[in-house]
């Protein structure tokens, strides 16, 4: 679709310089489908590092800025044939709100790494600002980009599992037990609940479509440091009668990147594990168990799963490709808007500020429940 406007989309980036890994992940993901190119940025508050990194990326030195404020001001004045189509925000988390706000006010579409902000109030403000200006505000809950996650979602939506009874999801990592958070920058600004808990909540909601009615949470700090609290156990009641169990931790010794979801319906159940992303296990009440595999052409897969696949079956796709699916959909949406077309349902399949608000509200409710030691309404 990029050829239909005669060029690649131009994007800028705020944050994402070395030694952090997330900026590199975003840049690689954007590049996979070749729809967008990086042309400007403010990568580090260290002026020397910022300048050198811009040079490493072969950017025009005039478009490597010492601050996000300078970047927003200068880029908003660029002629139309050079102006940025969107801006990617990958700063330390406490800066997400002011940086996103600055670029929205300057008229730019935004893709922000999660969390959108550090408070519900700020996230809602950004949502309303983007809405009032008619701007896209995407959020990179990238696990929704996996092909077999999309297959799981379609199976739930189609009724293949029957009425959903129970959702069990865990996101458990063990790296924090190694050093108590020494390797984490003190500007990260979020707890483990913010970091992996919002991913778990987002994935459960994306696949099942269920809305939380109430929850009760037990929150713990086992290691301490800048990611405190680092562990939580949650019971959930969903609207409509389904129940849920959620385990959240970055202090679960021995775990690597253990995002694992199981959805139980009255006719069948399914399970998906991030560490084995190309497989979806489906178990039926009266039929043999099935193992769905990712591919670009398998007839049994839904269209959204096939569109999220790039390589033939057996060539494992992972973290970068899931990220890339979000960026591809966002790019196609922006291209459609520029052409005056309505984006299709597949291109609009990416997280937005609505997801960001709900995730931060989820974190607040966990803390409220823990403090009250009781169920709280969502």
Would you kindly provide a written description of the structure presented here, covering whatever features stand out?
This protein has 378 residues and is α/β, with parallel strands linked by helices. Helix content is 35%, strand content 22%. It is built from eleven helices and 14 strands. It has helices spanning 22-32, 47-56, 68-75, 96-105, 120-133, 147-158, 176-179, 192-208, 303-307, 319-338, 353-372, and strands spanning 9-15, 36-42, 86-90, 109-112, 137-139, 164-172, 212-220, 231-238, 243-249, 258-265, 268-273, 279-284, 290-293, 376-377. Strands 13-12-11-10-6-9-8-7-14 form a nine-stranded mixed sheet. The protein has a five-stranded parallel sheet with strand order 2-1-3-4-5, with helices on both faces. Helix 1 (22-32) packs across helix 10 and helix 6 packs across helix 8 (192-208). It starts with 8 loop residues before the first strand and ends with a strand. The model has no long low-confidence stretch (mean pLDDT 94).
């Amino acid at each position: 679709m990029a050829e239909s406007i005669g060029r690649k989309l131009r994007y800028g980036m705020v944050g994402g310089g070395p030694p952090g890994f997330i900026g590199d992940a975003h840049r690689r993901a954007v590049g996979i489908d070749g729809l967008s190119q990086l042309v400007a940025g403010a990568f580090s508050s260290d002026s020397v590092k910022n300048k050198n990194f811009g040079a490493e990326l072969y950017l025009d030195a005039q478009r490597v800025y010492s601050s996000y404020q300078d970047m927003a001001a200068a880029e908003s004045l660029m002629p139309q044939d050079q102006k940025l189509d969107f801006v990617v925000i990958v700063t330390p988390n406490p800066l997400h709100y002011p940086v996103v706000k600055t670029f929205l006010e300057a008229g730019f579409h935004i893709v922000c790494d999660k969390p959108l902000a550090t408070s519900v109030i700020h996230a809602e403000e950004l949502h309303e600002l983007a809405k009032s200006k008619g701007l896209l505000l995407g959020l990179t809950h990238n696990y929704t980009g996996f092909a077999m996650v999309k297959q799981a979602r379609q199976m739930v939506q189609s009724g293949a599992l029957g009425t959903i009874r129970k959702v069990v999801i865990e996101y458990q990592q063990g790296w924090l037990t190694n050093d108590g958070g020494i390797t984490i920058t003190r500007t990260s600004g979020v707890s483990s609940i913010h970091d992996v808990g919002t991913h778990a909540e987002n994935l459960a909601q994306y696949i099942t479509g269920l809305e939380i009615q109430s929850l009760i949470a037990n929150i713990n700090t086992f290691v301490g440091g800048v990611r405190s609290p680092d562990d939580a156990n949650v019971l959930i009641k969903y609207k409509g009668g389904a129940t849920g169990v959620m385990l959240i931790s970055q202090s679960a010794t021995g775990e690597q990147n253990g995002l694992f979801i199981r959805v139980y319906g009255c006719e069948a159940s399914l399970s998906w594990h991030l560490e084995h992303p190309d497989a979806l296990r489906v178990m039926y009440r009266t039929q043999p168990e099935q193992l769905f595999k990712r591919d670009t052409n398998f007839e049994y897969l839904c269209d959204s799963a096939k569109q999220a696949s790039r390589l033939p079956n057996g060539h494992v796709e992972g973290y970068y490709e899931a990220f890339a699916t979000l960026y591809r959909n966002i790019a196609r949406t922006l291209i459609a808007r520029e052409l005056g077309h309505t984006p299709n349902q597949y291109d609009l399949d990416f997280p937005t500020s609505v997801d960001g608000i709900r995730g931060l509200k989820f974190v607040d409710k966990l803390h409220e429940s823990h403090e009250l030691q009781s169920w709280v309404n969502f």
